[in-house]
Specification:
alpha/beta; Aspartate Aminotransferase, domain 1; Aspartate Aminotransferase, domain 2; seven-stranded mixed beta sheet; four-stranded mixed beta sheet; 13 helices; binds pyridoxal-5'-phosphate
Amino acid sequence: MTVPSENSAAGRKFPESAVFYRDLERTYRTATRARGAWVEASDGARWLDACGGALTISVGHGRREVVEAATRQLAAVDYVHGAQFTTAAMEEAAARLVDSLPPAYRNAKVYLTPGGAEAVETAIKLARAHALAGGHPERHRIISQRPGYHGNTLGALAVSGRDSLRAPYLPLLADMPLVAAPWCPRCPLGLRYPECEVACASEVDRAVESAEGSAAAVLVEPVLGASAGGFAPPDDYLRSVRRTTAEAGVLLIADEVLSGCGRTGRFLASEHAGVDADIVVLGKGLTSGFLPGGAVVAKPDVVEAVAPDFRHGFTFSHHPVVAAVVREVLRVIRDEGLVARAASLEDGFRTALEPLGGEPAVEGWWVRGLLAGIALHPENAGGRSARQFAASAWERGLLVYPVGGPEGHGDLVVLAPPLTIHRDELGEIGRRLLSAFA
Ligand SMILES: Cc1ncc(COP(=O)(O)O)c(C=O)c1O
């Protein structure tokens, strides 16, 4: 095996290239091929993709069926404006998505967007439009959690509890209530489950109350996202938030951009708690990264309330080629039983990660389906950050997703391999990770 090196002479970096890179200090390798759970660079070096890039890949890299579905659609109808036409791809993708959801979403409607953040923006505006249509112009606040992440556009960032991402843009962000997330490994309230009786859920109650009628919706990540290391909170949390929103007559929005499409062993992570939201937001695994894309699923009563005029839209909403990719990705997820596969691989994934428990640098780790998080020990990690661990893993041919801890939530490493990953590849993730930590 060619040993990959982050600082290879083959790399490209700012300012030598014309590219405005995501990281202006990093030397970038050139990816030339991606198949299954593997990514290859121009010099033949290979990485096992344990995080699907940005926790994105559901059906595996390079699936020929998806490439062909996209190509057929490009040749038939490349683009039409969603305000002028529908397409068979859009109709069938929406129907297939609704079919993948629990019965509570029967007759729900699907709004396809160019990405996850745009889907969150769409959901926020839909909640506002719903309040207006119901004769509540005072309702405009969206209550969400810290830590939490919903995207980097200004509306989505305003409801994201990630202080390091917000800080430079604070004057541009709408003032939205952020309450303590159910982040048990480092409880923001300093409590312990179950003695805490899920006190963080009462924070949502209080936030709705102190918004004095101005709350339009509560927005949650049913399984916490990258900012909390993909941690699955106690089911009582989501159930309690559902009761609060129902009693207050505000909408519940479930952001399942990361946790949806089978990642946690159910199509939606909120199914673990038996809760259905009024609006569900999807992304990432929905297109499996073949194209940028996201979706909002809204229950029929929400859509009926805002009809006929939901004043919103993007040039690239309801895009026919994105729709064709979604339709095919959902077919693969269904026909290959990938949701059940994520559930059945959970134990194997846990076994592969178990040796990490003996590493002094690791404070804690958790698994739900094919989503896992590792929290670095604040003292015992020898001053190494999650980014440095990710760099060590990179040197060992392993891609992992580091999340920095400037918000005081600690350094985290997140894993989300493709739902198609093989058992022996899960073992390989464990071995390479252990070597990086050791
Ligand atoms: C839970 C959650 N919501 C929304 C987003 C934003 O999605 P995108 O990066 O596609 O805009 C992300 C991205 O990481 C996410 O994890």
